[in-house]
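In practice, a research group might receive sequence data for several interacting partners and want a quick structural hypothesis before committing to experiments. The following worked case mirrors that situation: the sequences arrive first, and a predicted assembly follows.
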Amino acid sequence: MTQDTMIAVIGGSGIYEIDGLEAAEWVSVDTPWGAPSDQILTGHLDGVKMAFLPRHGRGHVHSPTEVPYRANIDALKRLGATDVFSVSACGSFREEMAPGDFVIVDQFIDRTFARDKSFFGTGCVAHVSTAHPTCARLSDAAEEAAKLAGVTVHRGGTYLCMEGPQFSSMAESKMYRESWGCDVIGMTNMPEAKLAREAELCYASIAMVTDYDSWHPEHGAVDISDILATLQGNSNNGRDLVRRLPALLGKQRDLCPHGCDRALEFAVMTAPDKRDPALLAKLDAVAGRVLG
Ligand SMILES: CSC[C@H]1O[C@H](OP(=O)(O)O)[C@H](O)[C@@H]1O
Ligand SMILES: Nc1ncnc2[nH]cnc12
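A structural hypothesis for the assembly, expressed as tokens:
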């Protein structure tokens, strides 16, 4: 079964729009989960449908805790998105993952505690697998696009998602690096990746290293002005990488070979006669395929 590709890009800190879109238009999307972070920029690139959503809103309005993650994923699904790329800033726990490098994240440790993490709940309970929370097909494309853009890219890495907004203490930073084996740290990829899986969207995470967090003996404490300087110096690379994705993925896509687009197939536990009609109505875009 083939369908039209629609690439969605969720742009993080420092990335509030993408360039080169044909027939570009900012559109408003309402969702049963509230308003998304901002309007969504739609258009075409190399003949492929595109949607761009600034995660924190234009002007950086939403803190990592307050980003409306459920509304964002629902809005992208509602628009017809099939393939979602997160582009994020992150701190690095590895000497070789240096500021300016890109990391194609493939695993997460979720330390967030103040966010709504699921579309499901009382009245419609579902359990999806997140053993492999990112899509290898999209990660392949992201790696290839990074190489074509001429940036240093590391394939694979574990992203520690913290609640924020404050950065980590040195003790936390060392624990995440030495005991937990994490590679990078940020504040936003969770629950975003989990929600994308619940919505049966392929999801990949492209993390741009902006700093060494607070563990590095020669770099000291993470400093927002250093992060902003690195972001400014590298945002062109991020945009260049994104511009190369449509040519790599093409106008049409088959079923995901990893099953991201069928994640809900056997996930819903609540008996049909016990399901809450109000919750089912809210799940129309996210889970309509399996809930009917
Ligand atoms: C600007 S430093 C902290 C901020 O940047 C990252 O945001 P995003 O993942 O949206 O690029 C990080 O997660 C924090 O929210
Ligand atoms: N060191 C860090 N910790 C958390 N989020 C970040 N985003 C960029 N750098 C970060």
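Before designing any experiment, note the following. The chain is about 30% helix and 25% strand. The longest strand covers residues 83-92.
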